[in-house]
Write a structure and sequence with these properties.
The longest helix is centred in the middle third of the chain and has 24 residues. It contains four helices and two strands, in the order H-E-H-E-H-H. The chain is mainly alpha-helical and about 80 residues long. It has one domain. The radius of gyration is 20 Å and the shape is elongated.
Length: about 80
């Protein structure tokens, strides 16, 4: 379960990273020798918090479905066309 949570956390992190980024071009302040598209403020700490919160909700929903047997492996195999 820890490995699944870890992989889900990384996927959600890469989905959350682009939100709220302001480039130097958008901000109007350029640091000498840098690309105009370089970020000014990333807010990385809050992105880590949001990533953890979103991952916990997603993982909790899938874990609850697994524990209550709301979705079984046979259901998934039928959905993917592996069983009839």
């Amino acid at each position: 379960m820890a490995a699944i949570y870890f992989i889900t956390w990384w996927v959600v992190l890469f989905a959350v990273l682009p939100f709220g980024i302001r480039s130097q071009h958008e901000d109007g302040e350029f640091a000498p020798g840098t690309d105009p598209g370089a970020p000014v403020a990333t807010g990385f700490g809050m992105k880590l918090v949001w990533t953890t919160v979103v991952t916990t909700v997603i993982f909790g929903a899938f874990y609850a479905a697994y524990v209550t047997k709301a979705v079984t492996l046979d259901d998934l195999a039928t959905l993917w066309g592996l069983l009839r």
